[in-house]
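Task card 7
Instruction: Convert sequence to structure tokens.
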Amino acid sequence: MQVGVDLPAVDLPGVDLPGVDPVQMRHVLGHFATGVVAIAGLDPVDATPTGLAANSFTSVSLDPPLVAFCVANTSTSWPRVRAAGRYTVNILSADQEHVCRQLSARGAEKFRGLGWSPSPCGAPVLDDSLAWMEAELQGEHPAGDHTIVVSRLRHLHASDLAPLLFFRGAYGGVAQPTAGR
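Output:
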């Protein structure tokens, strides 16, 4: 186990700090296991489902009920989901790696072969999701090459399925406890 040394913060106006290598950053941050979500809405132009996958998702506030996720500034799907007005955040279950891969790909046929039903406002709730939340945009905040999207929840539901996890660049699940332990 490596032990770091805490040094006092030093404010050096006008002094550039050394840069962080993006490859090393991706490697190190890959050690933080995350769940995976699919953000989905109905394109207002043609009423077809549209969406994207993200692993940068978090709860923000209970009152008001807010969550956040990050989308790449280059995303062509997020503007279509945003235009839908309301959308769903589907927490993917252990058996939905294929859903994540499909929604992560570029192209207009992201929902081909995926089962879904409408949320109360009509946004896609993906079949076999661990949980889903219907949401609407509260605010967007520029953050480097991504945008932090804060969303207000309107409806939500959870199941007893196991989660899909992303860790060290690979998908996995949670080891289920055995009886008697």
